[in-house]
TrEMBL record, chain B:
Bilayer-crossing regions: 197-216, 248-268, 288-310, 331-352, 358-382, 608-627, 648-675, 695-719
Keywords per UniProt: Membrane, Transmembrane, Transmembrane helix
Organism: Streptomyces jumonjinensis
Record-given protein name: ABC transporter permease
Length: 228, 724
């Protein structure tokens, strides 16, 4: 277990992004040390996905900086950005986005293999993560429940030991029981794996579990409640 | 909601789903193009039948009615059909002589030519073949008097000097009323109806059906999900069918409309077909207007029916989660070896006349079954590939292995296109090679012999005086030596004056001298060739006139003193002007080899049909690859984007597309080799053809794999996380 440190591993400062005449992000800012979590809520179309894409480096903000693990990614070349993302970022998608033909272990180790990890190490880490997240490795991915699939997705996002873990509506497709289980597990990750977690969600119950609760209003991230 | 309102709603929903699907445009294009192809294929079949029927009718119409004075049918004209040869074909030249001013005209002819004049078909007039070799061309024959507008045909009215009335047939008119094809006309030198139908079914019908089957399922995953949602909402199977109809209706309608717009001109104007030198006759096409309309309506309906029938059945209580697909029809795999054996050896147990049909049918069935076998082999290899990929840390091999094991059908569809393309190309090209071998043998013989020694045969009687005129017409320094040909004894005697023989450095004796060599190069090679085929060539002097007068079809050796190459066309024109009413001229030693026409025309039809069929299949394969990769790209995007690894698309493509495609190409080549064993093509020629086709298949597979990977990588590059 990596103890949390005070230094921010994610520092978003005054980023702006517009589409046509519409400002989706306008001076948004966020700072998270490792081992902590933030939730971002906001109505549909408020710019939550745009924020995630900026954090992933898939789109470049028009102004401001995004510093991840000490590097401002807004100034990186495409190649350097890809390498930085591979090393420091993990993401959990709303629908898991697993490959149904692969086994859970293979789905998790795939992310490690694609990042250049050796097969044995990738398999060991995948099996260990799935065991930790209590996912059966004997069942086929296609036979897993929604909650189990999301736990596999969490394991996959963690397999490369990211500095920052992003989650896009990770409980959006789950029933209440599964939602609780996945949310508990997800918000335990920053402390157990020493990463920072940003969760975009519509679910106030899920958002309330975060150390920092933010709402995206008029392109700015407004803090809803103080650090716990 | 009334049933009609519900149906309209379902149709609208289906139409909307057609565009919204992940591979919506590919599916739309596939259904559109498949409908176009199958409509054109059906219309083409109707037009082919119409052309054969029209040809039969016109051929019978221009066949002469033999005069029967006893029945009151007086002779109105003299008529003699002959066969002429040009370099690349045979065609018919009919000699006519009206016996009265109001003698009935042949169909397509508006007036009798004067003696020495010729009426020719437009195609013959516009060709390089010298229509003027038969006389002065004064007009053309209307298409109504020809089997097809592109036919080579001529009516020649001989000069009074050359008219051989005794050799000609006395006829009372035309329109024989024959129900079968008479022995005159283009049909003798081209593909027969049955041969054509087999080729059409194999080279056009099979690809068209394959296209429909593949288009019905390609990119249908999104539609299937929507159909499943409808089913869970309580939609009946009928409602799901209406939804499927709505999804397919628009592209199918567009495909049908475009096909008919493309075909409609054949009803108005004569349309020349590319490659084959054949003109589709508009009046023939108009006789099947109803069938064309049925094709225009029936083909789209058939495509929609395929879309509806080929959608997977809804299984109530089944999981909505992605799961391994159930393998169906494994029993069909066992049919493959049976079909292969039956095709290769079945002919041994059949009567001769059924063997070609059995071979063609067996080849179609075997090739149609092969993709399923390749798919099963590839699916069986999938788990081992995945295990190897996981053990060695090869992400591409891992993903491809699991995909192939879980759902081999997309790959099966892809390899089906390749297998059938290679099978058809192999079959087509091997059949072409049969003809090409004959043509090449003839060409090589012709080029070896040259044209310094010609054999001119008067097919109607001539006289020594005419032979003299013929020699003078040929010009100074030319010699015309009578030949006494006795095939029953395997000998040819050159009968000539001593001066002629001495000019050829041949001994001049009254007793025949066996000639093994001659100074004239062409004659020397012709003698070698005749000797090689068991015919001996002798020379003797004396009684040349007797040979000319007593032979019904006297032949002559024509050569120049200086051994130069001669013009066959000039010799033919001189013979037709001076020697006899009808003559044939060819290189001495060729004995009618080459210029048969049928091989060349059949070869061209094979080229056109196989080119069309393979083009269709190339589109099918491209569509299959594209839809496969749009889906694969979409599924792999999240993990590949986060890891920044685009190379994985290329490795997945290499393992999931290139490898099965290579297995398919090898299997197709081996199977094609087996099923073409009964054909009389040489092993070398088959090997060369299949190696070429196989290599083309490898290149095609590599291009598809690369293209697919690029498509998927591009789709991944555009991928963004969804959400609010």
């Amino acid at each position: 277990m990596t103890p949390p440190t005070a230094l921010p591993v994610l520092d978003v400062s005054d980023i702006a992004y517009s589409v046509a005449d519409r400002a989706l992000l306008s001076g948004a800012g966020l700072s998270l040390p490792s081992g902590s979590s933030a939730s971002v809520m906001g109505p549909s179309g408020s710019g939550k996905s745009t924020l995630l894409m900026c954090l992933l480096g898939l789109i470049r903000p028009m102004a401001g900086t995004i510093t991840i693990a000490g590097t401002d990614i807004t100034g990186l070349s495409a190649k350097a950005l890809t390498a930085h993302r591979r090393k420091h970022m993990g993401m959990v998608f709303q629908f898991g986005e697993l490959l149904p033909e692969l086994t859970p272990v293979e789905n998790v180790m795939l992310a490690a293999l694609l990042s250049g990890e050796a097969a044995d190490a990738a398999r060991d880490r995948a099996e260990s993560l799935l065991a930790e997240l209590n996912v059966s490795t004997s069942a086929a991915t296609g036979a897993l429940s929604g909650g189990e699939r999301q736990r596999v997705a969490v394991a996959r996002a963690l397999v490369n030991e990211p500095t920052v873990l992003l989650a896009d509506e990770p409980t959006g497709s789950l029933d209440s029981e599964q939602r609780e289980a996945v949310a508990n597990l997800l918000f335990a990750m920053p402390r157990s794996h020493g990463c920072a977690l940003v969760v975009v969600t519509h679910d106030a119950g899920v958002a309330a579990r975060a150390d920092v609760q933010l709402r995206l209003v008029d392109g700015r991230l407004i803090r809803v409640e103080g650090l716990r | 909601m009334s049933s009609w309102v519900l149906r309209r709603q379902l149709l609208r929903m289906g139409r909307a789903a057609a565009w919204a699907a992940e591979a919506g445009r590919v599916r739309f294009f596939a259904l559109f193009a498949a409908t176009f192809v199958v409509t054109v294929a059906l219309a083409g079949f109707a037009l082919a039948v119409a052309s054969f029927d029209g040809r039969t009718e016109r051929s019978a119409d221009r066949w002469a009615q033999i005069a029967r004075p006893a029945s009151g049918e007086e002779a109105e004209l003299l008529w003699l059909p002959t066969i002429a040869r040009s370099e690349d074909r045979q065609y018919d030249v009919v000699y006519v002589e009206p016996l009265s001013a109001d003698a009935p005209l042949p169909p397509g002819v508006s007036h009798w030519p004067e003696p020495g004049e010729v009426l020719v078909s437009p195609a013959l007039k516009n060709s390089d073949v010298g229509a003027g070799e038969f006389g002065r061309v004064v007009g053309t024959i209307d298409p109504g008097g020809l089997e097809a507008p592109g036919e080579y045909f001529a009516y020649v009215r001989p000069t009074a000097d050359l008219l051989s009335s005794k050799e000609m047939i006395k006829v009372s008119g035309f329109h024989s009323g024959l129900e079968q094809m008479p022995p005159l006309g283009e049909h003798l030198y081209t593909l027969g109806f049955t041969e054509f139908l087999w080729l059409y079914a194999t080279l056009i019908g099979l690809p068209a059906v394959l296209f429909v089957v593949i288009a019905a399922r390609v990119g249908a995953a999104a539609r299937d999900r929507r159909t499943a949602v409808l089913a869970t909402l309580g939609a009946s199977s009928g409602a799901r069918r209406w939804f499927a109809v709505g999804e397919a209706a628009l592209p199918v309608a567009f495909g049908g409309i475009l096909a008919m717009a493309s075909i409609a001109p054949v009803l108005v104007v004569d349309v020349p077909l590319p490659v084959v030198d054949f003109v589709l006759y508009a009046p023939d096409a108009r006789t099947v207007t109803a069938q064309l309309a049925m094709a225009a309506l029936g083909a789209p309906v058939a495509v929609v029916a395929a879309v509806v029938l080929l959608q997977p059945a809804y299984k109530p209580g089944g999981s909505t989660r992605p799961a391994l697909r159930r393998r169906r029809g494994e029993w069909m795999l066992w049919l493959f070896p049976v079909a292969l054996f039956g095709t290769v050896r079945g002919g041994d147990f059949l009567p001769l006349e059924l063997r070609l049909s059995a071979l063609a049918a067996g080849s179609i069935v075997t090739l149609a079954l092969l993709p399923g076998v390749v798919g099963a082999v590839v699916a069986a290899a999938g788990p081992a590939m995945a295990r190897a990929g996981a053990a060695r840390g090869r992400a591409g091999l891992l993903i491809a292995g699991r995909r192939l094991a879980a759902g081999p059908r997309p790959v099966t569809r892809l390899v089906a296109a390749l297998v059938i393309a290679i099978g058809l190309a192999g079959q087509g090209q091997i059949m072409v090679s049969l003809f090409t071998e004959m043509t090449q043998r003839a060409d090589s013989m012709a080029s070896r012999l040259g044209t310094s020694a010609l054999k001119v045969t008067a097919t109607t009687p001539t006289s020594p005086a005419r032979v003299g005129s013929f020699q003078r017409e040929l010009g100074a320094g030319m010699r015309v030596l009578p030949l006494w040909i006795r095939p029953d004894k395997g000998r040819i005697d050159i009968v000539a004056d001593c001066a002629d023989l001495k000019s050829l450095k041949i001994p001049c004796k009254t007793t025949p001298v066996d000639i093994r060599a001659a100074e004239n190069g062409g004659l020397n090679r012709a003698i070698e060739m005749e000797n090689a085929s068991g015919t001996r060539v002798f020379a003797r002097t004396g009684h040349a006139e007797k040979v000319i007068s007593e032979t019904s079809r006297p032949s002559f050796l024509v050569l120049a003193d200086d051994g130069r190459q001669l013009s066959i066309s000039a010799a033919r024109k001189a013979a037709n002007t001076e020697l006899a009413m009808a003559n044939t001229v060819h290189v001495f030693g060729m004995n009618g080899i080459g210029g048969g026409g049928a091989p060349l025309i059949a070869e061209r039809w094979l080229e056109l049909l196989s080119l069309s069929g393979i083009s269709v299949i190339a589109v099918v394969a491209g569509i299959g690859a594209m839809s496969q990769f749009i889906r694969a790209g979409g599924e792999m995007s999240p993990v590949s984007v986060i890891s920044g690894n685009r190379k994985v698309y290329y490795t997945v493509s290499a393992w999931s597309i290139l490898t099965p495609a290579l297995v398919a190409v090898l299997a197709a080549v081996v199977v094609s080799w087996s099923i073409t064993t009964p054909l009389p093509a040489s092993e070398g020629s088959r090997m060369e053809t299949l190696a070429t086709v196989g290599a083309a298949g490898f290149v095609c597979a590599a291009v598809m794999a690369l293209w697919g990977a690029r498509t998927a990588a591009a789709a991944a590059a555009a991928w963004r996380p969804s959400g609010g």
